[in-house]
Amino acid sequence: MSQELDYSDYVMIKALDNGVTIIGLTRGRDTKFHHTEKLDRGEVMIAQFTEHTSAIKIRGKAEIITKHGNMHTNDLQ
User: Fold this and answer.
1) Using CA atoms, how far apart are residues 64 and 72, in angstroms rounded to an integer?
2) In angstroms, how far is CA 18 from the centroid of its own chain?
3) How many CB atoms lie within 10 A of CB 62?
4) Which residue ranges make up each domain of the chain?
């Protein structure tokens, strides 16, 4: 079954400490890193999934805000 992606959905990532790393991962046969950003405390990045981005990996203490809800990276430990 074919499913169309909704590119209007955004993910907001707010750094709660210095040095939070956000890594975009590619779609396709082989998953690879294609983009990396570093945020310092208080900085915010707004990202979205696209035809090229299938996943976002976050390292460090951050708040993640989506239409599905909010979480902190330390909530997952």
Assistant:
1) 6
2) 17
3) 25
4) 10-76
Q: 76 φ, ψ to 5°?
A: -90, -5
Q: pTM of the full predicted structure?
A: 0.77
Token pair for 37:
């950003």
Q: Which residues of 18-34 are buried (b: 16+ CB within 10 A; e: fewer)?
A: eebebebeebeeeeeee
* Statement: 10-76 belongs to CATH 3.30.365.10: no
| Residue range 31-65, pLDDT digits in tens | 777 789 999 999 999 988 777 778 889 999 999 99
| 3-state DSSP assignment of residue 68 | coil
Q: Which sign does the torsion angle of CA 31, 33, 39, 45 carry?
A: negative
